[in-house]
Specification:
The longest helix is centred in the middle third of the chain and has 8 residues. The protein has one domain. The chain is globular. The mean pLDDT is about 80. Strand 3 and strand 4 form a beta hairpin. About 20% of the residues are buried. It is an alpha+beta fold.
Length: about 90
């Protein structure tokens, strides 16, 4: 499962939390990455870099927004190995 270069490979839009009972760690997130693009995430400790990756990999619970889209498929429905292979 790979996106064609220039097509959308990842789309994240919404609020995400690590624990259902906790407030979202990521709010109003909107990220779109095309296949073939290089994305660099930088920030200070605790700014959400690992949470961003966790949301993209489906490790976080989405509490609001559109389903995470990975290469045209909802990442929540894909096996973890297929998700990491697409990256």
């Amino acid at each position: 499962m790979r996106a064609v270069v220039g097509e959308q490979a990842l789309k994240l839009k919404g609020d995400f939390t690590w624990e259902e009972s906790a407030a979202p760690s990521l709010t109003n997130l909107e990220v779109s990455v095309d296949s073939g693009d290089l994305m660099v995430v930088v920030g200070s400790t605790g700014s959400g870099k690992s949470s961003l990756l966790g949301a993209a990999l489906g490790l976080m619970q989405q509490v609001e927004g559109e389903p995470v889209d990975l290469c045209g498929k909802a990442s929540a429905l894909l096996p973890f190995g297929q998700i990491t292979g697409a990256l």
